[in-house]
Design a protein that fits this description.
Blueprint lengths: L1 H13 L5 H36 L13
Helix pairs in contact: 1-2
Length: 68
């Protein structure tokens, strides 16, 4: 939705319906969402590494159980 909002604001800016600050704000919101996603992905990877350290080996990453 943030990406769609940015595109809508860019189009509206080109025809003079919104100001440049509106476009910048939409870009900022999109970047904040992307940053939050990157942080969540990094947090997930760190927690998986911690769990694997505690388990003493690699855990399945695709949701399926490993057979011994």
């Amino acid at each position: 939705m943030a990406r769609q909002s940015l595109e809508t604001n860019r189009s509206a800016f080109q025809v003079g319906k919104v100001g440049f600050l509106d476009v910048l704000d939409a870009e900022r919101v999109l970047l904040e969402f992307r940053l939050a996603l990157a942080r969540a992905t990094a947090d997930q990877a760190q927690e998986l590494a911690r769990l694997e350290m505690l388990a003493g080996g690699q855990l399945p990453h695709d949701g399926t159980a490993q057979e011994s």
